[in-house]
Amino acid sequence: MTLPKTQVGFCYDNESRKLVKVTDLPVKQPTRGEVLVKIEGAGLCNSDLHVLSPRGGPIDLDGSNDKQRFVMGHEIAGRIVSVGEGTETTFKEGDRVAFFITHACGQCLDCRLGRDNTCGAKAYGLNQDGGFQEYILVDKLRTLLPIPDNVSYEQACSACDAILTPFHAIQKAKDVLTNPATKVLVVGVGGLGMNAVQILRNYPVDITAVDLKPELKESALKFGANRFGTSLDQITDEDEEFEPMFNLVFDFIGSQGLYDSYYMQLQRRAKIMMVGLAKPTFQIHNFLNAMREIEIVFSFGGNSQEQLQVLEWISLGRLKPITSNAPLDEVPKYLQLLKEGKVVGRVVFQPKL
């Protein structure tokens, strides 16, 4: 196929700290060790809002961002259109691939232990060029994962983060989820939390979902929650027989107010899986948590093996990603809608080529 020399993309600009549309990004031909991917979908995430917020900026672990501008968008799926001459890989032109966000090396201890989500500091769309463009040159081929034939590009985008992140947190608590008597609280059932409910319904547990948006009730119940409320008080007011004492909490918000609303509703030796990053810091209750031996476990993203599992779960119909499509030119519009809380599920941008 004939490739254009330039393309359109939406970049984070380090100087202005804003999103900028660039119309003359180069489309680079792959050389040895590289492939070129035509992007078929790139998802919008709350992390994009974090990057663009006044206290945000590029997300990395050690300040290694070395680009004046980088293309945003970290939930990426596409099709390989060119393989660099002499590249040793099983991938070929036409292969459909989803992107693992982290530029993991594959050689460090974390990678060898299957923890490649915490390897290095470079990541697609968060501090390096990502998916809000038409083509992307890939030199870290281990970040490409095959998409099953019956999984769409839109669904594959959700597997990169929106489903992978709760899936990873849930895998870290599997020992608790095998007990049918386990009571689980899911705090925040937006993009990540709603997917968490879908995953959790595969386990024999009782699921309570809480979100400030009452309009999410129908979807939460449909996807597997046993009950829903805008607060725990509302739930107990409507069902006096329900005892809100939980063995496991998945917190997809991460704010002081919501933590304060549930920390006294925990059984002894309960676990809090902290996933949400709404606030950079908040206070925990040392003495009360120590007396009950409460575990607070932080969780970030997921590893590439889990992402392959998520794609398989979607292929088997055990997970049904909530997605909608929009043209790439509407990235600014949907960023504003996301900021206003008016986006349901994952919006996936598609370049018009």
TrEMBL record:
Enoyl reductase (ER) domain span: 15-349
Gene Ontology molecular-function annotations: alcohol dehydrogenase (NAD+) activity; metal ion binding
Cellular component GO terms, alphabetical: cytoplasm
SUPFAM superfamilies: GroES-like, NAD(P)-binding Rossmann-fold domains
Keyword Glycoprotein: no
Cofactor(s) the protein needs: Zn(2+)
Entry superkingdom: Eukaryota
Key words of the record: Metal-binding, Oxidoreductase, Zinc
InterPro entries found in the cross-reference section: ADH-like_C (IPR013149), ADH-like_N (IPR013154), ER (IPR020843), GroES-like_sf (IPR011032), NAD(P)-bd_dom_sf (IPR036291)
Transmembrane feature ranges: none
Coiled-coil region list: none
CDD domains cross-referenced by the UniProt entry: hydroxyacyl_CoA_DH
Record-stated family: Belongs to the zinc-containing alcohol dehydrogenase family.
Protein name per UniProt: Enoyl reductase (ER) domain-containing protein
Lineage of origin: Eukaryota, Fungi, Dikarya, Ascomycota, Saccharomycotina
